[in-house]
Amino acid sequence: MKIQRGFPLVQSLILSCFSLMLIHLIMTGTIVLYISPKLIWLSKFSAILLVIMALAKLVALPHNHSMAHNCCNHDHACGSAHHNHSHPTKGLLQMAIFIIPLILGFVMQPRVLASTALSNSINTAGPVPYYAMHIPKSDKFSNTVQWPSGLFVKKNAPSSAVAQGTNNASINLLNKSNPQNKLNLVKPLTPESVSSTVKETDLMQLYLNIDDHPEQIYNHHWQLTGFVYKDPTLAKNQFVISRFVMTCCIVDATPIGIIVESSDAPNLKADTWIEVDGLLQKRTLDGVVDIKSVQNFHETEDGIPYLLATRCKVVATPKDPYLAPPLQ
Amino acid sequence: MIYIYVSQPISNMKFYPVLIGSTLFIILGTKAVQNKDVLEQTVNVATLALSVILQALPFILLGVFASSLIRYLVRDDWIAKLTPQNAVAGVIVGSLLGLFIPVCDCGVLPVARGLFRKGVSMHTALAYLLTAPVINPVVILATAMAFQWNWHLVGLRVVSTFLVGATTALLAGSLFSPKAFSDREWHRHEHGNPQISLHQLLLHASDEFFDVGRYLIISAFLAAAIQIWVPKGILVQATSNPFLAAGAMMLLAMAMSLCSDADAFVARILANQFPLGSVMAFLVIGQIIDLRNIILFAKNFRLSLFIFLAITSLALTYLLSLSIDLGLGKYLF
Question: pTM value?
């Protein structure tokens, strides 16, 4: 009993430190580097609960003795009489493990996931690397694992990327393809007729529309932000502009990306955050241009999106580096 | 009233998970030393681990509070009246209980323990423990979102989890005595606590928090280390052969230890390359046996029961995955 009740002060301290850490992370905004913004309300809630628990632990101190004894007797009565009261330092040692995340939370500058997280990942090692996987071709999943555009809401889509004059035809098309869905809020990326204007967007927005409205995606100029991933199988003047998509926490983050061809590519270091303007094209991989060095692609008949960069600009790591998955 | 498990004999296998965990961590760490950007990777591991902890924290709290509420609000005689003593019925009730006490795999163990203490049969407690992380409204909804409201796939996941979890629970409940729940926490009876106060509830919840939390912290660091340091490329090579693919996906699910809310979103990516059965194996086994559960189960159960649970659920999941790929799938889709 001494072990358990011996450290209410320490436990109370740990609980309140956890709460403080949560508050610290939320206040500084670094929490979005750990968990999805849609879970922050849960963290706030936890912070409050932890404080209450810490207070309860503290109040337990003075009049705790009798209660502890009661329970102790009770346990003995239940036949578990052989619990040896081990040395208190051991109990403290067990508590010490809670200090590790606390130190990390207060001291560590969290790392934004980038190439390091990709090097041993399932997303680059498979037969089809992530940047070539936008079109799920799989037969039995054909209606299931696509990322149909009509279903998704992208709240922070820059308005410039969103069509001003959505034509009725495309809305009908969307409604027809997803009749059960009422949340038909994604506006198709209808470009202005002149395709030379550069439109700012993010990778997710392109992905969401690329299957259903390829004509609105390909052969247009886009401005994209992401980090540089250098796949060893790509040619020297190519890299992959990538972003991670986070569902709950960064362990489940999955990358999306597009191959970029740029004369600046050899000078760009991996993991640099850049802003790229370029013309998005579809390339088949049968020996066209420099992409020969990529060996594993399957989807030759379709080609993969491919951005011909006109301008590359190094930018600072954004405050919210992770994209949200569709269907929030 | 509640002990820290240190006070128990070391021979109880309590320390082994910690030992194995830290050894593995050190091995992985030394492997990284050979790399040039060790620091970079270590910070990455720490970031990932803290991310898992932060994300799991609310769900652990949910679990320990649910457990405390059960302890103080549910009366033993209700349980005796409501839960069947028949093994099969008990397993079915246990599997469906998740719909009413929804907790994910971070918080399921304290709840199962609390139910068992209240007199629920071993079958029911185990069935709840193994299936509740998937068969609960929140996770069903998340899975449906990830799979674009394809209720076929959602149903398949729920049914698969039920088949594997319930069968495992049925067999384990019949073969083992309740003594196989070796952690003393399982057998601490309170007969109708006289003074139910909010204060006691909070105390109990924070004790459970410290009891479960340490293992979650260890498993978070392990999962993060595996994520960064262990090459998983070999696992995703075996896409065409269903026999290999199922095994690879199961290994992947256990190594990644994803939360049941998020794993369907990862599975969707895998579904582009892998046969349906192996994706289902990923979704089923990941919530029954993963790093987190291995550590918690090893601490809570006698070694024989722990190994039985692991092997049975692995074998059943593998069989299920193959049967989906080699025939059953044709009837379903």
Answer: 0.76
